[in-house]
Amino acid sequence: VQLVESGGGLVQPGGSLRLSCAASGLTFSSIGWFRQAPGKEREFVAVIKWIGGNTYYADSVKGRFSISRDNAKNTLYLQMNSLKPEDTAVYYCAARVGPLLVVTTTRYDYWGQGTQVTVSS
What we know:
It is a single chain. By secondary structure, the protein is mostly beta strands. The chain has strands spanning about 1-5, 10, 15-25, 30-35, 45-50, 55, 65-70, 75-80, 90-95, 110, 115-120. Strands 2, 4, 5, 6, 9, 10 and 11 form a seven-stranded mixed sheet that branches. A four-stranded antiparallel sheet has the order 1-3-8-7, with no helix packed on it. The protein is globular and about 40 Å long.
């Protein structure tokens, strides 16, 4: 059972990054992204139903971030555009076995190790 994130890095404000999360060895219903900035709690970013593709976003990223998945490659993506300094955080991929799209960290069953995103000039 493994979730492995990649694609983080340093980007200037207004720039873009695409994060990836490769899933292996597990079965889940939905998969999403969370982030945690220094000194803050981990917060929901976006989630997608693995079958069907329904999505849900945090208000703070709506219109700037886009979540998608490639079922054949068992890979989740997060396209992040118009990045702001306040988007700086460690971004985590998380998968949930239950059928509902939820935003609470405790409702997710599997977590990746995280990838750092830093937005700074």
